[in-house]
Design a protein that fits this description.
Layout: H1 11-28, E1 33-36, E2 43-48, H2 54-64, E3 69-73, H3 74-81, E4 89-93, H4 100-107, H5 119-122, E5 125-127, H6 133-143, E6 150-154, H7 163-169, E7 173-176, H8 177-180, H9 183-189, E8 191-198, E9 207-214, E10 221-226, E11 235-241, H10 244-248, H11 256-270, E12 273-278, H12 281-284, H13 287-298, H14 303-310, H15 320-328, E13 333-337, H16 341-349, E14 353-358, H17 369-378
Parallel strand pairs: 1-7, 11-12, 11-13, 13-14
Antiparallel strand pairs: 1-2, 2-6, 3-4, 3-6, 4-5, 8-9, 9-10, 10-12
Bound molecules: guanosine-5'-triphosphate (GTP) and zinc ion.
Length: 383
């Protein structure tokens, strides 16, 4: 198992992905990016709503020459306006002079709408058209692990065909909505295997850690290889999604800590296998959003509703990266330790032969009973 270099892609494809990588980090640090459609479609300036700040808002108004709107997910729009029939995403024009703190409050599902005061009456909803710029801008904010809400302003004088040049002259990053499509698939393939070390673990002494670095500048993923798996036979594999609270701190809200250590113990006792430790904190909504989801759960929602109230899918994870790691490790066929049928079907769709599901269940405690019940009743987990 030699360390490998990133797979080469076409030059055009690589620059498309780079523009999305850069846009994600720019949004994460509260900067503006320019998003355009094709040919005569429109051109938008985009700012992640939860990172709204006075400098970026002022620059947005000055550069766009139009007043900004904020795009919020369905539940937030319903809570703010009291209107029950709302499309998946709505945009609300921001009245002149709205400050950045107010924008952040509009976007934050944990901020009580009553506290928005008189502003609430003036926020009227315009549905965001499915398909192009609006949804693409929200997707960028999700990939930045921020709330799925963005401030946008249409750049009235600039056509899509001139957008990249105009952005460059204005010191802005630019990308097109079509760059956003297909990004996840391309991103998963841009994974380099960079370092391997022997790391004896308490639960599986004969272990090596192989680190994979994504080319998008994101967090690394790890493969923990126990023993010397026979790659000609199905390999015992566990896909573990990062859970800082459960894995590291011993949180009792979930079953992750038990599942992590239990998997290593089981693989160790069987002599060989692989645990993929995937940087997908909070079912891939990120740690901060997971803590927000916990806050909503403390107010009465279950784990699925809490994600949806924040504007995320119940589970945002895709396992293309996991499949690519297995491919680079030479693993074609697996016995998968999981209770989650989605992991099985996604791996199979990515070309991994899942020959068996190995149940991976641990006793509940008084804090995670409800969470485990929801996994069984709402997300199809097999308990
Ligand atoms: N968004 C969110 N993520 C959570 C919550 N509780 C745990 N997680 C995350 O869920 C991931 C673990 O997923 P689980 O649903 O417990 O299990 P699974 O991986 O789907 O399925 P198994 O293979 O059967 O364990 C980790 O990334 C955790 O951080 C929660 O309430 N909200
Ligand atoms: Zn957890």
């Amino acid at each position: 198992m030699e360390d490998t270099q990133p797979l080469a892609g076409g030059k055009a494809a690589a620059s498309t992905q780079t523009s999305v990588d850069r846009a994600i980090s720019e949004l994460r640090r509260g900067g503006l990016v320019l998003l355009h459609g094709s040919a005569d479609e429109s051109v938008l300036l985009v700012l992640a709503a939860e990172m709204a700040n006075e400098v970026a808002l002022a620059a947005m108004v000055r550069l766009a020459g139009s007043l900004p709107s904020v795009i919020v997910p369905k539940n937030r729009a319903r809570d703010i306006t009291g209107n029950e029939t709302i499309p998946p995403y709505s945009s609300m024009a921001l009245p002149h002079g709205v400050d950045a703190a107010l924008v952040r409050q509009i976007a934050d599902p944990l901020f009580e709408p009553e506290k928005l005061g008189t502003l609430r009456q003036s926020l009227t909803i315009v549905p965001v058209r499915a398909g192009r710029l609006g949804p693409a801008s929200v997707q960028l904010s999700k990939w930045a692990r921020l709330l799925p809400s963005v401030v946008v302003a249409r750049v009235s004088d600039v056509k899509a065909a001139e957008a990249a040049r105009w952005a460059h002259a204005s010191g802005l990053l630019s990308l097109s909505a079509s760059d956003v499509e297909g990004y996840v698939e391309a991103s998963a393939r841009r994974l380099s295997r960079v370092a391997t070390a022997r790391v004896p673990l308490a639960d599986a002494e004969n272990s090596r850690i192989v680190a994979f670095r994504p080319a998008d500048g994101g967090e690394e993923h790890l493969a923990i290889i126990v023993g010397d798996p026979d790659l000609e036979a199905p390999v015992l594999v566990r896909l573990h999604s990062e859970c800082l609270t459960g894995d590291l701190l011993g949180s009792l809200r979930c079953d992750c800590g038990d599942q992590l250590r239990g998997a290593l113990k089981e693989i160790g006792s069987q002599g060989s296998g692989i645990l993929l430790y995937l940087a997908q904190e909070g079912r891939d909504i990120g740690l901060i959003n997971k803590l927000r989801a916990y806050q909503l759960q403390d107010l009465g929602s279950d784990t699925v509703d809490a994600n949806e109230q924040l504007g995320f899918e119940a589970d945002e994870r895709v396992y293309l990266t996991a499949a690519e790691m297995l491919r680079q490790l030479g693993v074609r066929s697996v016995r998968l330790m999981t209770n989650n049928p989605e992991k099985i079907s996604q791996l199979r769709n990515s070309g991994v032969d899942v020959v068996e599901r190995v149940a991976h269940i641990f006793p509940s405690n008084s804090h995670n009973e409800g969470y485990l019940r929801t996994k069984a009743s709402r997300t199809g987990h097999l308990f």
